[in-house]
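Below is just one:
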Amino acid sequence: MPVTRPHKDLRSPRPLQERLISNVLLACAIVSVLTTAGIILVLLVETVGFFRVVSFGQFFGDTEWTPLFARKRFGIWALISGTVLTSAIAVAVALPLGLLGAIYMSEYASQRLRRVLKPAVEVLAGIPSIIYGYFALTFVTPVLQRVIPDLAGFNALGAGIVMGVMILPIIASLSEDAIYAVPDSLREGAFALGGGKCAVIRRVILPTAFSGIAASVIIGISRAVGETMIVAIAAGQQPRFSFDPRVAIQTMTAYIVQVSLGDTPAGTLEYRTIFAVGMTLFVFTMALNIASFYLRNRVMRGGVL
């Protein structure tokens, strides 16, 4: 007669140390979620208070922004245009340089050189943005004024160029990761069909890695839109609805810095403008982050747009 052994429950209680670590990690996750919820709640409460006085028509239908003047105007487009202008200049600088650098590191550089170049590029991301701001104001702008005589001392062009240098490591590093992750079988198949190096990169590798490259660009744009110190120092504090890079402008983040210096009494309409601007900025960057998250998921699933 066979001897039956008692069934052993594989779901035995976890050790106390493991449960403690799990609870600590859960608490950290909850703190992160509650912090985000608190930020959104504060923005919503103050923004609702702002729109009780200022209508949506005044906010989105005007191009003048003078809430701190005697003649108050609340046209957010003056700040949005400055933000879009500097971000567009930054992307125009960072995208070609970052993408070409990523292609070189992934497809042309040796493994030894790649291990040196990639960390060297990523060092740029560790430089404080305030240093970039004074670099734009004291070096880049004077150099540009020799070429463009009517360039103002505070301008969107110099700030945008330096912002492009700042976000270049993001685009270069993430794009290189996406290109490097393309399976070698695709490269070998393209070479077997008689394709040259440039043709394979242009027609096979870049389309396959497009999702990752696009995600890196969106993350870079989000970083440029939320940048504060460079635009506050080098772009000026003159909100105007203009896409002329030669003149001084003001971005949404630079205005928040201006009002947050302490000269505006808390609870006033002028004080609540920073929350209305912050909510606009939050919605803008959240849309970019959602798009980036979607594209990165396409990369993880192996999809191609």
Summary: The chain has a mean pLDDT of 85. Residues 77-270+284-300 form a domain with the MetI-like fold fold (CATH 1.10.3720.10).
